Amino acid sequence: MVDFAELFEKGDFVELGLEVEKKFKEIDKNYKIKPKDKYNAKHNSVIKNLYEKWNPIEKSEVFFNLSEWDLNKLSFVVAVDSVARGLKTSQIRKILNMSTTIHRKLKIKGADQGIANEITKLSYTLAYSLGRHKEIEPLARVLNKAISKLTDERDYGRIHNFLQAVVAYHKLLGGRD
After folding, report:
1. How many Cα atoms sit within 13 Å of 45 on the Cβ side?
2. How many CB atoms lie within 10 A of CB 143?
3. CA–CA separation, 154 vs 49, rounded Å?
4. Number of C-alpha atoms within 13 angstroms, CB side, residue 61?
């Protein structure tokens, strides 16, 4: 049996991602597990162990103090939980597209031009998305905390990089289209 927490600690996210995808597919194909119980099976077999090592809600409290590697770990854990819940790629990409727009405006205009309105829009779009699609909860909770702690618009790049990593890991883990 694969020790998901050990692979996570090693930082081998590609190998871990492939193993998680395999485990999730195994659970999805198991006809003995009712569809409504599949998330719990995925949670108990993979996510619970990762959360014990790396709780995304706790880590999002110190989002801007995390190293780049720790943000990478955070994005992986969020992606695993999102895939387990059945989050579709299109739901994540909508948020990433908004973030890309904000990121580009910052690069073109510079931080002195202000992007507060766009960041506010991203925040309430997350809330709306969560209201419609409960599968986005892990991402919405972490992003909401990060956005609320954003004190300097120049730090927005960290949020954008985090989102890009979540989308990449979501795809690796077999996230649906």
Report:
1. 19
2. 23
3. 34
4. 5
Which residues lie closer than 8 Å to 159 by C-beta, 6 or more apart? 63, 99, 143, 146, 147, 150
Contact of 174 with 87, CB cutoff 8 Å: no
Q: Minimal CA–CA distance to 173: which of 61, 50, 70?
A: 50
Instruction: Report pLDDT digits (tens) over 92-103.
Output: 888 999 899 888
Tens of pLDDT, residues 131-168: 998 899 999 999 999 998 888 777 888 999 999 999 99
CA–CA dist 50, 6 (Å, integer): 9
Phi and psi at residue 150, to the nearest 5°: -70, 115
